[in-house]
Amino acid sequence: MASLPKRIIKETERLVSDPVPGITAQPHEDNLRYFQVTIEGPQQSPYENGVFELELFLPDDYPMEAPKVRFLTKIYHPNIDRLGRICLDVLKTNWSPALQIRTVLLSVQALLASPNPNDPLANDVAEDWIRNEDEAIAKAREWTKLYAK
Amino acid sequence: MSRLPKLSEQIQNVSDPRDFLRTKLPELVDLDTLLRCHICKGFIKTPVLTPCGHTFCSLCIREYLNRELKCPLCLAELRESMLRSEFLVNEVIASYVGLRSKLLEIARNAPDVTVPHSDTSLIEIAPGDGGAHETSGDDDDLQIIETRESRPAKRNAETIGAFSKKPRLGSEKPGITSMIGKSKSPALPEDSAECPICQKHFPLEFLQRTHLDECLTMGSLGAATNSTSPSNPVNASIEPAHSIQPATRHVSEPLVPADITHSNRYMESGQNQGVARLAKLNFSSMSLQQLKAKLTSLKLSTTGSRQQLINRYNHYEMLWNSNFMDSIEPVEERELRRKLASWEATHNSLEGTPKKGNISKLLKKNSITRIKDFKTDRFDRKGWILAHQQEFKELLEEARYNLAKGSKMKDATSNHDVSQDPDHADSHPSNASYEKGEIPSNQLVVKTEEISTSSQNTAGI
Asked: Which residues of chain A have pLDDT under 50?
């Protein structure tokens, strides 16, 4: 393994010693670019009281390139598909090297608080969401209870 | 598990703004954060300013602009040609970095005056720190200077205030001055306190309102007269720390010459004349010949695929422009080529340099195309022998069989003599025919000879 850039060491140290409330990120023992992440569902969202597992990988070109983030826990959300891939601007076109793991995970948490069915990734979920929002939110709650424990 | 201690080891070698959190000067977290690059998180190396007012390491931002033409902080449109070097910031940071470990030491070991304070200051600074990371879009030098001059001074006034209020509570400070203070204190009226700078006693109110400011100003003025640069912000910011602890005053002496060199370097800095910016190339309209000619004119290697040549030029262009356009002290071209070489070793590795373990596999796969490598020194003879041992054995056996057929059957013990014959006599008809069919190179004959002699040896045993 090539030596880890100082920036990644710094970020890791900060994540472990001074974690963001409701978010944990632990580097994998064998690969310090691979993180096991948990995010608590935001209050007053359908994902409240759920704990969602994610994986995060820092590519070789990080921070020039965005980290790869994916949900491992099943979630009913218009911007997250069944493979756990996330439709989020800062992970794609709006990535900037001034961002970091911390801010990316906060953005993911914010996405849980405000689903955007008008820019969907999971089309079926987004359609449900637009057709009957209350029903969709109820289903999201149910999935949270079922899977995000 | 074996990697974890390695990580913690690495962490200890990495400086972080929060090193100052648990010291007597937690405000330095903010300053320390401002002087770092938002891309690499280290202190800014060769700072460049964008038109939108943001500062990054020259190499960091140039590397990013090779991918995206926008500012990483505000996403405003940005091109490499818009970057301007900032020599002042360069010297300010160099000066700060030189001071940092001393500053940290002083801030850690300052007299035990702020212990009751440190908890509140932790809370005070924590949101500011987070904010700086997430939203700070304004690390121009105006702000940096402001932070340096006003914040620490204010902080010192506070800590000194705390000290003067509780001189007897925080009386762990040993030494003659504190003993004198103690012996005198009962005689003094209750609302008087000792000034930590000049050690005189004043009424508390007077001390806090006017005397401390005066005392501090006098102290920094006195230091400023030592230094030839009265406007040096670093000196101004470090001085109050010294004033708290007169015992460490001698530390400022070695700093003075350092300050002079940074100031002088800044005064003497100017646009580098005579070296031209390397242009971006439009590779799609260039032939391979043109590309190679360009690289040769820069004394760069021309080996590798077209893409590797392009990567090589792009990286060298970045190093070149960062060095000759932005740096206050450009290095020689030779040093740039050395940097390029170390970058290539990890990022642009050349094809066609097979790893040792794979040589025999590679040879087996394309033995025909590899044969021309025979004539180079790099040819792996052992690998070749190993890879073709079986083939050679079969050939030998066939040769023996044919020979035996030609000169009638002979018994097993005389086999050695038979097999030796074709090796030594190249003109033997049957032997020549194998070579034509299987192996085109003349040198192979030598190889077969080696193999056959070695196999004879083992057969003989």
From this structure: 1
Within a domain: A109: yes
Structure tokens at B321: 């422009």
How many alpha carbons lie under 13 Å from residue A3 in its C-beta half-sphere?
Answer: 6
Q: What is the pLDDT of residues B75-111, one digit of tens each?
A: 899 988 899 988 999 999 999 999 898 888 888 887 7
Q: How many domains does chain A have?
A: 1
DSSP for B334-380, written as a single string: HHHHHHHHHHHHHHSPPSS---GGGHHHHHHHTHHHHGGGGGSTT--
Residue B325 in this model has a pLDDT that exceeds 90: no
CB proximity B346 to A under 8 Å: yes
> Distance between CA B162 and CA B127 in Å, rounded?
23
Residues in chain A, overall count: 149
pLDDT at res. A27: 92
Q: Among A8, A12, A13, A105, which would you mutate to test the B interface (most chain B Cβ atoms within 10 Å of its Cβ)? A: A13
* Interface residue of A9, A18, A33 to substitute, partner B, most B CBs within 10 Å: A9
> Which residues of chain B lie closer than 8 angstroms to A14, CB-CB?
16, 18
CB pairs under 8 A between A and B: 59
Show the tokens assigned to B110.
Answer: 């300052």
Nearest to B14 among A6, A27, A98 (CB): A6
What is the domain extent for residue A70? 6-148
The residue extents of the domains of chain B are 283-460
Q: What is the pLDDT of residues B256-283, one digit of tens each?
A: 454 567 888 787 777 666 778 888 888 8
Chain B segment 51-70 residues within 8 A of A by beta carbon are: 60, 63-64, 67, 70
Look at residue A91 and tell me if it is in a domain. Answer: yes
**Domain annotation covers residue A51:** yes
Answer whether residue A106 is part of any domain: yes
The pTM score is 0.55
- Angle, CA of B383, B386 and B389, to the nearest 5°: 145
CATH number of the domain within which A49 lies? 3.10.110.10
- pLDDT digits 0-9 by tens, B394-434: 888 888 888 887 766 545 444 444 444 444 444 444 444 44
